[in-house]
Amino acid sequence: MKKESKISYEPEADVLTLEISKDAPIDSAKEVGNIVVHFTHNNVPVLIEILEASSFLKQAEDAFSRTHGHLPSATSVPA
Question: Which Pfam family is an annotated match for this chain, by its short name (predicted)?
């Protein structure tokens, strides 16, 4: 069975959310910098939040560009 993840962005809060499992109850969370990972009671990650997402993604893009060259722009990616 294929698991489907959901990605959403809340611009007012600047939070990017990756929902790994919508059916598993959250028991705990660990925060490292601007990343919060929510876990089940068995320590299985079910939700990841990236706080200050626009800054995080800009830093990730800059790091990628330094090591791999620039990312293609959205207009150059085939639909």
Answer: DUF2283
